[in-house]
């Protein structure tokens, strides 16, 4: 197959001397005619351009297919440098042989030979690099430094130091910063001390690059006191200086000193990077759990992947329960499965979980589809003698509720001999999540403690989920009047949601205007959701505008506005919104669903993509859809893309992730937790109208309870009825 790529030629008009660019596309078979009649610099410029784009293979192909008359020393040097940078030894060898055959005079050129030595050194081909070096009639500091660096990078510190010493004997060959940093990277303490003395003698002590290398050398030699003295002597520190010192304390197993340097770095206003946090992470054995967790959280906020900590942790031999608990804490929400795996491994290592460890593992259990993991930890809590600990009972209430078992949450709550405010708030929130507002309102008067702001968020959320508008208004008004609690943003967001969902959108808008603080994105999202439900286009535009200002990368405003237009039959406007969204680089969060079969969690995207049993699932789903249509199921196609055929709109809806998950559960009902009478599905976004209707009918037809946990609440489908009473 021929390679096809774009050739960009930088040209100059011979008459006006004006520059212009010629852009053409060529295949590998006609590269030679493309460059015919041009100068060597044209080829050089194109080789540099391709190399800068990471297209070294295309650059080499272009070079080999061009006329030898266009080959220059600069072009060879550029290609050798790219081979060195990418570690492409075979390509470099071929190019070297090609040069010897077509341009033998290059072998005596200092510039090209230096690039060859650098390439072979970087690729670990030191014997050949040294042969070229020995054959050179003349050498400069670049020649020496390339070979010194090569030996150092290969861990051959003795040869690197010997070469550096030989360089000092050369006339007019004064080592530069890079030569010192190279040899220091692989030498031992005694050689390093000699080099340090030479650095001071040559006046390079002020070089931050050389000093950083000295700090690292002393640290690796376990002379951390000397490294620290040198660090403190610097007039200004670079990020590498801080990282080198933190890594030095970590190597010396002085974890708290590493933490201290990090704190000092933070106080100095120095920004840190991932290398900083990874060094600190390795120093955290024995630290307080809050300290270790704070560092992992900071790493995540930098955009780092906590799984990097996870893999690094698995390589450590730390036998400290605090450190293990910190790692589980960092993973509990973003990756419950990995957190639970670490907990099991902790037990295998012979460590004994403490109260805090159990509470964090239960937090991870709240992220699973079923309650079986929480039940297992509950039994271990009892066995460990912690069954009456209020903190753990509170964690159990939360975990069972999030896994779909409000009955188990209620049982734990009722068995508590002593309840604190978190206990009451957890139970109130659990009732709200499951659409049991009446139970929440009946429980509230039984509280024997003064409620706080979280109490009223739980109560108002419960009212919102069930459409209990008057009760919500009464509770909101009582906050300050009866309890002295000033409503905050969360409370106003709940009230906007309560009023808006009930169709009282004018009142919701008026409430936003009267807020004593600026409404945040949660408030505007609540109003937008109400506008979506009741088709209030103009007010929705205002809410979307606010959301774009506050969270420009959030897709919610675009998606909801497009849905509002589509529901009203204004498909052109909906298409415009989608184009605007694409043009802004905003991406909609893909809908995903999870279901637990046996001991394995299965993930489904729309259409069942990537699932190994996709074809069988789709076939089974088609059959179920046909059966449900016979008892009244009508696909809700108003929100499907308008520019596709009617049958394709239905197909788009049929393959939503929660439908795929349901069918897979039916196919494997013998492996479901609890014998298959209850099917539990977890979804990352809110369930759509069509899937909600589908689940209702399916629950009656299949004679099973279907529990769907979406991003907002739980839906319990049973006997063709949903616990939300179609109010969500």
Automatic annotation (TrEMBL):
It comes from the Eukaryota. Keywords: Repeat. Residues 632-728 form the DYW domain. GO terms for biological process: RNA modification. Pfam families: DYW_deaminase, E_motif, PPR, PPR_2. InterPro entries: DYW_dom, E_motif, PPR_At4g14850-like_plant, PPR_rpt, TPR-like_helical_dom_sf. PPR repeats lie at residues 140-175, 420-450, 452-487. GO terms for molecular function: RNA binding; zinc ion binding. Belongs to the PPR family. PCMP-H subfamily. PANTHER family: PENTACOTRIPEPTIDE-REPEAT REGION OF PRORP DOMAIN-CONTAINING PROTEIN (PTHR47926:SF382), PENTATRICOPEPTIDE REPEAT-CONTAINING PROTEIN (PTHR47926). This is DYW domain-containing protein. It comes from Gossypium barbadense.
């Amino acid at each position: 197959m021929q390679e096809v790529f774009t050739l960009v030629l930088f040209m100059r008009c011979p008459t006006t001397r004006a520059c212009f660019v010629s852009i053409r596309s060529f295949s590998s078979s006609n590269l030679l005619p493309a460059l015919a009649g041009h100068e060597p610099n044209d080829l050089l410029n194109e080789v540099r351009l391709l190399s800068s784009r990471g297209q070294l293979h295309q650059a080499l192909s272009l070079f080999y297919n061009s006329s030898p008359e266009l080959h220059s020393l600069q072009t060879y040097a550029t290609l050798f440098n790219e081979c060195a940078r990418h570690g492409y030894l075979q390509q470099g060898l071929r190019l070297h042989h090609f040069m010897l055959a077509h341009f033998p005079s290059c072998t005596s050129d200092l510039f090209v030979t230096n690039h060859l030595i650098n390439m072979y050194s970087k690729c670990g081909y030191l014997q050949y690099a040294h042969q070229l070096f020995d054959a050179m009639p003349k050498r400069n500091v670049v020649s020496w430094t390339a070979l010194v660096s090569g030996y150092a990078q290969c861990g051959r510190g003795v040869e690197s130091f010997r070469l550096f010493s030989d360089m000092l004997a050369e006339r007019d060959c004064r080592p530069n910063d890079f030569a010192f940093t190279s040899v220091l990277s692989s030498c031992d303490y005694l050689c390093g001390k000699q080099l340090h003395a030479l650095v001071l003698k040559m006046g390079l002590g002020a070089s931050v690059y050389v000093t950083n290398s000295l700090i690292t050398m002393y640290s690796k030699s376990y002379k951390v006191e000397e490294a620290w003295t040198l660090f403190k002597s610097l007039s200004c520190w670079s990020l590498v200086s801080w990282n080198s010192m933190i890594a030095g304390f970590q190597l010396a197993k002085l974890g708290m000193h590493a933490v201290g340097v990090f704190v000092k770095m933070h106080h100095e206003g120095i920004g840190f990077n991932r290398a900083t946090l990874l060094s600190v992470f390795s120093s955290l054995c024995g630290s307080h759990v809050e300290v270790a967790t704070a560092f992992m959280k900071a790493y995540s906020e930098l955009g780092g992947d906590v799984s990097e900590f996870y893999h690094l942790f698995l390589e450590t031999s730390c036998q400290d329960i605090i450190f293990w608990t910190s790692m589980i804490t960092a993973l509990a929400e973003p990756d419950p499965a990995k957190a639970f795996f670490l907990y099991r491994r902790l037990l295998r290592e012979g460590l004994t979980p403490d109260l805090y460890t159990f509470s964090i593992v239960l937090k991870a259990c709240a992220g699973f589809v079923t309650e079986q993991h929480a039940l297992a930890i509950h039994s271990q809590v009892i066995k460990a003698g912690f069954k009456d600990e209020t903190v753990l009972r509170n964690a159990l209430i939360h975990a069972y509720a999030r896994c779909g078992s409000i009955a188990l949450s209620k049982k734990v709550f009722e068995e508590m001999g002593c309840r604190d405010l978190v206990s009451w708030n957890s139970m109130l929130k659990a009732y709200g999540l499951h659409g049991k507002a009446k139970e929440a309102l009946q429980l509230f008067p039984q509280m024997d403690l003064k409620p706080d702001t979280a109490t009223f968020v739980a109560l108002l959320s419960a009212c919102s989920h069930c459409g209990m508008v008057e009760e919500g208004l009464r509770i909101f008004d009582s906050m300050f009047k009866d309890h002295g609690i000033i409503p905050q943003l969360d409370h106003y967001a709940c009230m906007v949601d309560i009023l808006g969902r009930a169709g009282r959108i004018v009142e919701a808008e008026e409430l936003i205007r009267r807020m004593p603080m600026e409404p945040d994105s949660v408030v505007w999202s609540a109003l937008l959701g109400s506008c979506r439900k009741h088709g209030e286009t103009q007010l929705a535009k205002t809410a979307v505008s606010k959301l774009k200002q506050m969270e420009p990368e959030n897709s919610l405003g675009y998606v909801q506005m497009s849905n509002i237009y589509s529901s009203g039959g204004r498909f052109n406007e909906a298409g415009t919104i989608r184009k605007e969204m694409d043009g802004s680089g905003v991406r909609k969060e893909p809908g995903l669903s999870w279901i637990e079969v046996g001991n394995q969690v299965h993930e489904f995207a729309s259409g069942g993509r990537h699932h190994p049993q996709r074809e069988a699932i789709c076939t089974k789903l088609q059959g179920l859809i046909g059966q449900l249509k016979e008892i009244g199921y009508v696909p809700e196609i108003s929100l499907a893309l308008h520019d596709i055929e009617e049958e394709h709109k239905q197909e788009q809806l049929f393959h939503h992730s929660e439908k795929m998950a349901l069918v897979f559960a039916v196919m494997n009902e013998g492996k479901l937790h609890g014998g298959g009478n209850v099917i539990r599905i977890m979804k990352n976004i809110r369930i759509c109208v069509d899937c909600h209707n589908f689940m209702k009918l399916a629950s009656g037809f299949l004679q099973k309870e279907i529990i769907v946990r979406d991003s907002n609440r739980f839906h319990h489908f049973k006997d063709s009825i949903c616990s939300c009473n179609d109010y969500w």
